[in-house]
């Protein structure tokens, strides 16, 4: 099947999946909390439970995609997302709210980037770097497209109907895209060799380093996705200006991914990852020192770095370990990241309440530690090559 068709189908379905789940609390957490008589923290705790569920499911989902391909898993995720969003829209208290998010967490484990990347690795092997970049180019608009839509639906029809609308979109758009336009395909099993045990022993350090990098960068990404409009208001922007500036994350992600697709693809993905990891600390330094005047620059740098790091999450394991066992490896790599994501919204909310924009010192330190880990990974790769 035409690769462009597959990339477009996955790109659109991933935009829907991310925009209607991961990016939902940034807009709906406050109206949910107000109407249900809950604190915002309890709403974010329920959202965090979804990330924990997705972490626990990740390795099993990845193993299944390695064995049978990802088409049916992605199609099933559309159904699960729809069910979770319906339960969320029907919530009249804390228990139903948790039930909705727990089901959505199952869908996240089955239907976000890890599953999409693993599907592409099964279809195209080491040539999957281009398609991975392609779907992230499209899905990079998830926040820019879905935040305004969710905000409008909430303002006009209420947060419950916003959830119902997104559920319908999973059935009417996500399901046919995933089931009808994604071909079946898996890489043939890798032949056994006498060097297999030695190779397995040599992968523990790269796996540990990648696990750390993905964990800290996704903690930063989740914290910003949940709190960026609020953080920008603290920096001095009006509510409307803060939302408008935060929406620039999507275009910045896409611009950076175009750079990766056109120029940086000629180099090892480690170079892209190092450049991306340092972008958030650089932007944070500006907004912490000068406030509102550099808020937009901070958003653009954060978005650009996040955009490339999302690609690196798919391309680095592919470049270092190859396509065989890719799905299981992706699932394992993302377990600590998902647990970190689960804690990030609440933890960063507490940091912002206490320190304001200086809370970015914490996220910047994490970003710089990721750069160090990538440098160690590069040194290890060079030693292995020689």
Helix and strand topology:
Layout: H1 3-22, H2 25-36, H3 40-68, H4 71-89, H5 94-111, H6 113-124, H7 129-139, H8 142-157, H9 159-180, H10 196-202, H11 204-234, H12 239-246, H13 249-262, H14 269-290, H15 295-321, H16 326-355, H17 360-385
Helix pairs in contact: 1-7, 1-8, 1-9, 2-3, 2-8, 3-5, 3-6, 3-16, 4-5, 4-9, 6-15, 6-16, 7-13, 7-15, 8-9, 11-12, 11-15, 11-16, 11-17, 13-15, 14-15, 14-17
Number of strands: 0
Mean pLDDT: 89
How many domains in all? 1
Which sequence of SSEs, written as H and E, runs from N to C? HHHHHHHHHHHHHHHHH
CATH architecture designation: Up-down Bundle
Which regions contain 5 or more consecutive residues with pLDDT less than 50?
Answer: 193-198
> What oligomeric state is this?
single chain
Give the helix/strand class: mainly alpha
Sheet-strand content, in percent, reads under 5%
Distance between the termini: 39 Å
What proportion of the residues is helical, as a percent range?
A: over 70%
User: Helix count, per DSSP?
Assistant: 17
- Kindly provide the radius of gyration, computed on alpha-carbon positions and rounded to a whole number of angstroms: 20 Å
Description:
About 2% of the residues have low confidence. The protein has a single domain, classed as MFS general substrate transporter like domains (Growth Hormone, Chain: A, Up-down Bundle). Helix content is 84%, strand content 0%. Helix 3 packs parallel to helix 5, helix 3 packs parallel to helix 6 and helix 11 runs antiparallel to helix 12. It is mainly α and 386 residues long.
